[in-house]
Amino acid sequence: MADYTSSELLTINSARLLRDGxxxxxxxxxxxxxxxxxxxxxAPNLVMIYxxxxxxxxxxxxxxxxxxxxxxxxxxxxxxxxxxxxxxxQRGNVDVGFMGGAQIDRFGNVNATVIxxxxxxxxxxxxxxxxxxxxxxxNRCYLLTPHNKRRFPEKLDFRTSAGFLSGRAEREAANLRGxxxxxxxxxxxxxxxDATGELVLTALHPGVTVEQACExxxxxxxxxxxxxTTPPPDPEELRILREDLDPQGIYLKGSA
Amino acid sequence: xxxxIPLDEAVGQFVRDGDLVYAAGFTHLIPFAAGHxxxxxxxxxxxxxxxxxxxxxxxxxxxxxxxKVIFSYMGNPGVGxxxxxxxxxxxxxxxxxxxxxxxxxxxxxxxxxxxxFMPMNPTAAGDLERLNPNYRTVKDPYSGGDVVVVPALNPDxxxxxxxxxxxxxxxxxxxxxxxxxxxxxxxxxxxxTAEEIVDExxxxxxxxxxxxxxxxVDAVCQVPFCAHPSYTQGYYDRDNSFYLKWDEISSSxxxxxxxxxxxxxxxxxxxxxxxxxxxxxxxxxxxxxRVSVPVDYGRx
Lengths: 256, 300
What we know:
The complex is a heterodimer of chains A (about 260) and B (about 300).
Chain A: H1 6-15, E1 23-26, H2 30-40, E2 47-50, E3 54-55, H3 69-72, E4 77-78, H4 81-90, E5 96-99, E6 103-104, E7 110-111, E8 114-116, E9 121-124, H5 131-137, E10 140-145, H6 168-174, E11 181-186, E12 189-193, E13 199-204, H7 210-215, E14 223-229, H8 235-245
Parallel strand pairs in A: 1-2, 1-5, 5-10, 10-11, 13-14
Antiparallel strand pairs in A: 2-3, 3-4, 6-7, 8-9, 11-12, 12-13
Chain B: H1 7-14, E1 20-23, H2 32-40, E2 46-49, H3 54-62, E3 66-71, E4 75-76, E5 80-81, H4 83-90, E6 95-98, H5 101-113, E7 117-120, H6 127-131, E8 136-139, E9 146-151, E10 157-165, E11 171-172, H7 180-186, E12 189-197, H8 200-204, E13 210-212, E14 219-222, H9 240-249, H10 253-265, H11 270-277, H12 279-285
């Protein structure tokens, strides 16, 4: 039995995708924890940008929302909503965008808008927020999600944001400046796009089987021959998460 | 010239049934007191536009004020669903018009700068642009490539909360500045609420911080704690536990109605509301000070 939760596993594996010096468009919850963890381990020069218009945030507490006042105090800069999307994201000044959403398909397209018909929604979700632009214009996009068939359907009910569309060729033809969905971190492993833009299984977390990953994916999941096993969370990563970043276990206690 | 009037009077005079209302503030400085005044005055058939409808529009929709919402993220930030707006949409009782954040804010930017539309680079997402006819794709006349455009948004009335303003409405904001300036310049009428009304000399001591000039403001209302359960940077904290609690309240019609009875119809104004919240809440939202180093504008 592993001595870490699936939320901790997701957060730690996401943090490891970040590089020192990256500017990251951060979301609340686990992406926020992942960025703060990366900043305290291998990426001390990470610049955290929040879509509320905060650049270089150094939050002293865990923000519930992306507009929390703790993001502002001590930040490098604060700008308007128009400026953050135009000067920073559209101009190409964002390296990494973390996406959220209810469904993701095999080409990394995401639905955060609706389950059922748009005009007569069965379940109305919050909608795009900034994700339409993040998915198109951030250099690298990542998504953290629990791994199950509901999240990984054969077909999306709605395409809120673009991954590789119907394949890498279509995204390239669309001439978007960003690199698209480059990794999906789940509680079972890691999916990354192959040469055609299709998300394939490239790594499993310790103790997880290929069968588990395939059974929980709504399309026929391909597995790379060079399948890796992710290094387990190390004690220092877990200590920072538990003692410094989320001591009350608000985000990390449960399953993802 | 002083434009200072009580908030109820400003709402009575400048918010009309059927208006397109933009109550500004990206998480920060959301003018809840004005929303409550609109509910109390039983304004009807409003079109409520905000990037994030937040609890303020959830409450106004629950109060029967709206016929339509325009938004780009319809959630309870950091918590989950915005239950009232969501259930009204799912039940087919509320019209909606939807954008991405950049589309929404580009509409305001066009409205604020007197342009007919704003261009954006394509995102190739597709579905929203297909379903909302306000999104159009046109040719860039220079490169021949595609640009996506959205039309100007010019609200009938903008409601904007600020840290401090003078009696004429010259207003200063710090912290997250979202879309307050854009909403103010875009709107036909502007109601400004302020934590503090200060002397013009204070405004003039730091002109770079003035985002809104008084000459486009119609009413100035002194409303301390106007933003609760949202917050005012440097004045009081965001009431995150209320945002969590609203998730429970708004999941039942009865609880929502009794919330409005007690906290909106049951008080006469924001001062009474704040008093009613009690000292435990006041203490929880009190913050320590962290002042900036003053800048020297020089004497010339």
